[in-house]
Write a structure and sequence with these properties.
Length: about 300
């Protein structure tokens, strides 16, 4: 696994497009998120269908074609420096194959931010464009709107990435040790669902794999991890960072499962690393070469996340 191409950092006045490739977006939270971006001296523009809701499937922010068009138009607009997702939910898998990846490649590298259902796009950007991305808070998310730590860590990553080359989580080692590799990952259920699709990478070999999820029963987390293990997707992984497991079972039960399924990999594993669906979520660059120190619960990037 090789390090991916890093986009340029943002500067005051940069134009950022807000898109909704997944679920419907609450207007009040969107407006609050736009206010935060303006407070950072950014120029946010909202894609035309961000506030849409699909007529038949209320869990989608408009039709697949409209969501895909919003995303591609934002990415291919030469005046746009970054594309930020408004929220997750569900829906990227329905629209990702409608994107013109050659046109997006021609548009050049830009900053891309999102998490949860956006895991599918992180994987597609890695495999189709070879582009590094940011797993971080979304523009209409509660964490982005209300949590200072989440806001400030994302802001530092966007504007002054050299100041956050070492990400210290306060977590603990589930399996001690150090490892080097290239960061990747996201929502566990989406990584399992991506197996066999056109955008899925062959394996996580050589990677520092970041995993988190939300609202899943323990047997379902077991199923996802077992599927990745049986498919050989975890063969050769260098280390694992575990984020939040919000609204899953009691963490003692989840922790036992994680140790059972991941402990036999023989690589360092750190838990409670503070990314994902938790309050104050940290921004984790994907596609970056880094060192994981599970005992110190730190991830140190070889280079800043953005140029």
């Amino acid at each position: 696994m090789r390090e991916l191409l890093r986009p340029a950092r943002l500067a005051p006045g940069a134009r950022v497009a807000v898109v909704a490739p997944s679920g419907p977006v609450p207007e009040e939270r969107l407006q609050a998120g736009l206010d935060v971006l303006r407070g950072w001296d950014l120029d946010p523009v909202v894609a035309p269908h961000v506030l849409d809701r699909h007529r038949e499937f209320g869990y989608l922010a408009g039709t697949d074609a409209d969501r895909a068009a919003d995303f591609q138009n934002a990415w291919c607009d030469p005046a746009v420096d970054a594309v930020l997702c408004a929220r997750g939910g569900y829906g990227v898998q329905r629209m990702v194959d409608l994107l013109d990846w050659e046109a997006m490649r021609t548009a050049g590298p830009k900053v891309f931010v999102g998490f949860s259902d956006i895991t599918v796009l992180h994987e597609a950007f890695a495999t189709r464009l070879g582009l590094a991305t940011l797993h971080g808070p979304m523009a209409a998310g509660i964490d982005f709107v209300k949590n200072t730590r989440a806001q400030e860590h994302l802001r530092a990553t966007l504007f002054a990435p050299e100041t956050v080359r070492t990400i210290a989580s306060g977590g603990t080692a589930l399996v001690p040790g150090r490892a080097r590799g290239v960061t990747l990952g996201g929502c566990l259920c989406l990584l399992a669902a991506e197996l066999g699709t056109p955008h899925a990478r062959a394996s996580a070999a050589g990677g520092l794999l970041c995993l988190e999820d939300v609202g899943e029963e323990t047997y379902r987390l077991d199923r996802y991890l077992t599927q990745l293990l049986r498919a050989g997707w975890l063969d050769g992984v260098r280390g694992v960072l575990l984020g939040s497991w919000e609204n899953c079972a009691d963490y003692a039960e989840v922790r036992f499962l994680l140790a059972d399924r991941l402990g036999a990999l023989g690589v360092p594993v750190v838990e409670d690393f503070g990314f994902g669906h938790c309050a104050g979520a940290l921004t984790i660059p994907f596609g970056a070469t880094a060192e994981l120190d599970a005992d110190a619960a730190t991830l140190t990037l070889d280079r800043p996340a953005l140029r």
